[in-house]
Amino acid sequence: MKRREFLKTSIAASAAILSTTTLSAGETRQPIDNRKVSDMAFPQKRPLITYSDRPPLLESPRSTFARGITQNDEFFVRWHLPDIPTHIDTDSYTIKIDGLVEQDLEISLKELKNDFEQVEVTAVLQCGGNSRSAFTPIPGGIQWGSGAMGCAKWKGVRLSDLLNRAGLKKDAHWIGFNGLEKAAYYKTPNFVRELELTELDDHVIVAYQMNGEDLPYLNGFPLRLVLPGYYSDSWVKMLSNITVTDKYKSLFFMDMAYRVPDNKCECETPEHHFKPTKPITNMNVKSVIGYPENGMKVYHNSHVVVRGVAFDDGHGIREVLVSVDGGKTWDKAELKQENGRYAYTEFRYAYKPADYGKVTFMTKAVNRLGDEQPFAKDIGWNHGGYKYNGIDEVTVEVV
Ligand SMILES: Nc1nc2c(c(=O)[nH]1)N[C@H]1C(S)=C(S)[C@@H](COP(=O)(O)O)O[C@H]1N2
Ligand SMILES: [Mo]
């Protein structure tokens, strides 16, 4: 069945249930973009859009995306378990490596910083559920707008160097990563991720610094996994254990969450969830406008510079196109690419509003493979609300 038909049937089937609302099931639109930052700030953070304080769930406002590097104090925060350790003893903290290795290792922070080659990578960290509020009906989970993402310069050591020091045994195939939450609350499902050895290249690092400073506590102090190009569910924070195994261990977070339908459109209907599913891995191409913002007023005949960021999974951004006529015609934005292929590409587009009234800016990024962002309405629905990458839109008023 083609997607359009698929949608029609699903809309017809659910029309009765939804008669009290104007939303159509299985459709997608622009993510919610009217939330204000909170009055309250968490330690090391400026006030952000706050969904919960236990666990801390914080979203960066749109204005953050006018710049290519996200500051540490404006970087979004997501934790799954309500109880995160509130104290870390940096002198005794170690990262343990065990399982199918020649030699179990326990590496202190000091050893990590002194005994291994130090490397840096600038990379985008984006939750797979970023922009989830674009999906209708809205899937369960945090109703993120577009701010569950950020781009930082990460410094640390290569995961492969750690694994080589331990020495992998012949049957080594899977690697499990565990955050420190486990130690304190062992009865809740741990936040553990598993990756296949073949997925891990030299770009994967165990990082202790973000933008030249220690990782902020809420972003995983003192150590986190950095997987450039991958959605951030696997970027385990407060990383304390790495376990090498021969078999996939089947864990709650890997089996239930962060998966999409294993079909070409990665889509399904609210009535019939598609099986089988697959884990989300590589990020699709996306752009988000940082300036101007929805509802702003700009002066007639003034010089408006639309600014924002674009990224993909590391293939690199070829161009960012801007439309002011609803997507009929597109113009190229200027690009600035200084931080490598995993980082944000900054774009800017100068515009002189010649007419009064509302004007909508749309941005569409295209990567080096030729993949481009679809219109919001053409994105397939999935029940987890993952991987939304619709053409971004901001509407301002010319006065
Ligand atoms: N230990 C631990 N690591 C974790 C998580 C978690 O709940 N616990 N959540 C993951 C998810 S789903 C996301 S989106 C990112 C969020 O990273 P941030 O809080 O630094 O923005 O951390 C990932 N790593
Ligand atoms: Mo996430």
Automatic annotation (TrEMBL):
Pfam families linked to this entry: Mo-co_dimer, Oxidored_molyb
E.C. code: 1.8.2.1
Organism of derivation: Sulfurimonas autotrophica (strain ATCC BAA-671 / DSM 16294 / JCM 11897 / OK10)
Keywords assigned by UniProt, alphabetized: Metal-binding, Molybdenum, Oxidoreductase, Signal
Domain of life (superkingdom): Bacteria
Segments forming domain Oxidoreductase molybdopterin-binding: 84-249
GO MF annotation terms: heme binding; molybdenum ion binding; molybdopterin cofactor binding; sulfite dehydrogenase activity; sulfite oxidase activity
Protein name: Sulfite dehydrogenase (Cytochrome) subunit SorA apoprotein
Stretch forming the signal peptide: 1-25
Biological process according to GO: sulfur compound metabolic process
